Amino acid sequence: MPSASATPASAATPAVEVRGVVKRYGAVEALRGIDLTVNTGEMFALLGPNGAGKTTLFSILATLRAPTEGGARVLGHDVVAERDAVRRAMGIVFQEPAIEQRLSGRDNLLLMGLLYGLPTAAARRRADEILGQLGLAEAADRPAKTLSGGQRRKLELARALVTDPKILFLDEATLGLDVDARRGFWGHVRGLAAAGCTVFFTTHYMEEAEVADRIALIDQGRIVALDTPRALKARLGGGVIRLKTDDDTRARAWLVEKNFTPEAEAGAELMLLHADPAAVLPELLRHLPVKVLRAEVKEPSLEDVFLKLTGRKLAGDEAPAALGAGGAPGGGRGKGGRP
Ligand SMILES: Nc1ncnc2c1ncn2[C@@H]1O[C@H](COP(=O)(O)OP(=O)(O)OP(=O)(O)O)[C@@H](O)[C@H]1O
Ligand SMILES: [Mg+2]
């Protein structure tokens, strides 16, 4: 990395630059050499399964942990040597609640503004402005603990916006929310990105990652692919056939014999990539020596891309608790993301 100067970020400076970052926790190598660049104003997703290293990279960029090797710059500032400059420019939303549950929405934001040195009147103005922008006016005078899960998550976002950050870091910011609440949350974040704020977020939900301009797929501490959602899916070429039969083992053996290559670990069904799935499916249905219970042809998803690249599924089979209405935030997943 170039020397840690206090050069201000210009339009030409990438919002995030990560070079050769390795992070070890004792014997655990959580990051194994990460390189990536995020452009100013870009919405960038880090997508990967539990334990891939997402929170670790997020924490390094947000100056909460230091890399073991390599370095990173945020808005031109070194995350270790110029930690305070990075902190002044960033907003951060953790998976775990950071808002004070007993305080009202407005007081939470006011407190944040005062902590960052805004004069009281300005902090109050800013608080009401943001509550309005995020559709949280009714949360202004209510204790945070009385808000819905979705409102509370938006209040976390509001808190991160008080200081008008140039870059937002979000770590699994919508875990535990239902689909509608997530959509509302990401709608606001997209608006911020459109207004020029760079957004770096982690998720292990592919449908969340799809809102990003570019996605880095991370697995076991390495970036396995980095591109736009469309280009990532185009890598598979063609489409996907999914089959459920009354004897998948026999079906798989038959497919292999006929020179189809079913993916190894597609869960409780068979998955085939094919250049022209709609053309080949009728042939399969006619000739497979087993009873086909369900057959589906679809566009490749990011899940399929991940499976193809790593041989593993993106979302562990234990994960869906987080999607269910009222699912406990955190879902019992071990977190190591707090400073
Ligand atoms: N403080 C720590 N001490 C030891 N090991 C850690 C620590 N924090 C994380 N790890 C390990 O580093 C690896 C990456 O963890 P990390 O929290 O970055 O993953 P993640 O992608 O955020 O996972 P999740 O989706 O579950 O949040 C895991 O093997 C984890 O057990
Ligand atoms: Mg994590």
Structural description of this entry:
The chain folds into two domains: 16-229, P-loop containing nucleotide triphosphate hydrolases (Rossmann fold, 3-Layer(aba) Sandwich), CATH 3.40.50.300; 237-299, Alpha-Beta Plaits, CATH 3.30.70. The chain has helices at 54-61, 83-89, 105-115, 120-133, 149-161, 179-194, 206-209, 229-234, 248-257, 277-287, 302-310; strands spanning 16-25, 28-38, 43-47, 69-74, 77-78, 90-93, 167-171, 198-203, 214-219, 222-227, 239-245, 270-274, 292-298. Helix 3 crosses helix 4 and helix 3 (105-115) runs parallel beside helix 5. By secondary structure, it is an alpha/beta fold. 32% of the residues lie in helices and 24% in strands. It contains eleven helices and 13 strands. It has a six-stranded mixed β-sheet, sandwiched between helices. Bound molecules: adenosine-5'-triphosphate and magnesium ion. Adenosine-5'-triphosphate binds at residues 25, 28, 30, 48, 50-56, 204, 333, 335-337. Magnesium ion is lined by residues 54-55, 172, 337.
Provide a count of the helices. Answer: 11
Number of strands: 13
Runs in which pLDDT lies below 50 for 5 or more consecutive residues are: 1-7, 317-339
Structural class per helix/strand content?
A: alpha/beta
Q: What is the count of distinct domains?
A: 2
Residue share in helices?
25-40%
Strand content: 15-25%
Distance between the termini: 24 Å
Could you name the CATH class of the largest domain? Alpha Beta
